[in-house]
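Ticket reopened. Same input as before:
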Amino acid sequence: MPNERGAGGRLTVDLDALATNWRTLETRAAPGETAAVVKADGYGLGIAPVVRSLRAAGCKTFFVALPEEGVTARQHAPDATIYILNGFFAEAAETYRQHRLRPVIGSLDELDDVARRLGEGPGAALHVDTGMNRLGLSMEEALALDPADPRLTRAGVGLLMSHPACADTPDHPLNARQTEAFSAAKAHLPALAASLANSAGTLAGGPFLHDLARPGIALYGGCARSGEPSLRAVVRLEVRVLAVRAVKKGESVGYGAAETLKADGRVAILSAGYADGLLRAAGSADGHAGAAAMIAGTLCPFVGRVSMDLIAIDVSALPEASVTRGTIAEILNETLTVDRYGEAAGTIGYEVLTALGSRYARSYIGDPGDTR
Ligand SMILES: *Cc1c(COP(=O)(O)O)cnc(C)c1O
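Engineering reply: fixed in the latest deploy. New output:
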């Protein structure tokens, strides 16, 4: 029941499934180590319980985007190695030092900065760009860097890292270019441990796998690579039905009268909307299907636009007595995956997860608690 706190919905996070997924990826990445990417509040699922669970499963290395996220991760993983993907924010130098957060250095300028301002500190990783054109030293810069450059020692650089742009698309030509470039950078800086694989790269294996894998989305049950089944579902989202109403052929439901009903039927109004991360683009309109919810195993398509706090679904296929005020509808479960919801909204499972927000009552299955 979603509602003892007065929330419109309940988000259940299955930490046992999360830990199982981490172990599956660990097997795929072996003999290399498997880290966990827990940025953006553990992909929206709660960084604290996510870190506690993965640490209990045996994960020793975590990646977050921001130093602030690193501080939270540190509270729940006192002995772990924690990398900050977005690098070194000079004004927060004391935070990196105090919480032993390792910046992922993305340019020569940043290498200077870390060596000067953080030297002899927590250590760092060096990011080389192999074709993504986002963060990282260019290949020219990386290959021109003297492996004995004192800045590398002073900054405590111990990991060489790059990020694949297309590992989710098995036959994309950029994959070979990036894996080959990364191997060249690694050969030039052989003293550093090496890390290339995200979730898709971990599942792809082969030349993506080095000393450390960095999966994110696959841990949380999202689809990482086309053609590969998702790992276990981690989220379940249930929302309550506020009202059920009869609607007539030719009428419409919701803002903009976006969808005209083709037949008489019944709609249920759910207590969740785009302010709960259920993206407005998941609504339906004439000639365009939206997402669907599920009641007692029956799919109930969204009808019309998603409002801020409300969604209408078509419950005509269900017996009248089975959907009433207070009935629970599922929006995410093993069948209604974050990827399926994302597809209906023209986006990806990653965005659905990280949009979920704070209005739901959250419950965690299998939280090991603080075991330090
Ligand atoms: C987010 C991120 C990851 C994890 O990617 P997934 O696709 O979620 O597995 C790994 N490495 C870097 C640099 C990232 O930014």
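The chain has a mean pLDDT of 95. The longest strand covers residues 235-247. Please confirm and we'll close it.
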